[in-house]
Amino acid sequence: MPALPAPERAYTRCMARVFLGGDDVRIHHGLFGRIGAYVRGDGVVPLSKIRFVRATNDPWAEVRGVRAPGISLGHRIALGTRRHKLGKDFVAVYGNGPAVVLELADFEFSRFVISDPDAESVAAEIQAALDEPRLPSPGSPGFGRPSYGPP
């Protein structure tokens, strides 16, 4: 892999990373990201709460609202909660590279925007998990009934 320019290397060391783990998506923050975004641990979003996932090459067009709490340094870094009239978003955007956008339903945040140098493949992996058929889990409304014919 070719060496990245110095500013890009610095961003990738402290960037949040998006991982698919079982039935949820995890957002792992580096130390700087945790401090700047005012979060204690990793973010976890159940796959059932994700309405839509996509990759973008212009993450700053996806950042909306005012930061509260968080940190923002021009179009270099935006970390934390962004509040707006439609609700609130969580952003971890570094520089001008690609990002993963998660549109959510019935969740604390309406959207996550997370910078990731491999955003296309991360978004494709999450979309494949969303498209995968799932069996009802114990305690859910269709568990124990056959999936064919009337109830």
Give the terminus-to-terminus CA distance. 56 Å
Annotation, overall tally of beta strands:
9
Q: Radius of gyration, Cα only, in angstroms?
A: 17 Å
Question: Judging from the principal axes of the Cα atoms, what is the shape?
Answer: globular
Q: Give a short account of the largest sheet.
A: 6 strands, mixed
Give the low-confidence spans: 1-11, 142-151
Give the helix proportion (percent range).
Answer: 10-25%
Tell me the domain tally. 1
Walk across the major sheet and give the strand order: 4-8-9-7-6-5
Structural class call reads alpha+beta
Q: Give, in order, the helices and strands.
A: HEEHEEEEEEEH
Give me the number of helical elements: 3
* Arithmetic mean pLDDT: 79
Strand content: 35-45%
What are the salient characteristics of this protein?
three-stranded antiparallel sheet; alpha+beta; 151 residues; disordered C terminus; globular; disordered N terminus
Task: Explain briefly what this protein structure is.
About 20% of the residues lie in helices and about 35% in strands.
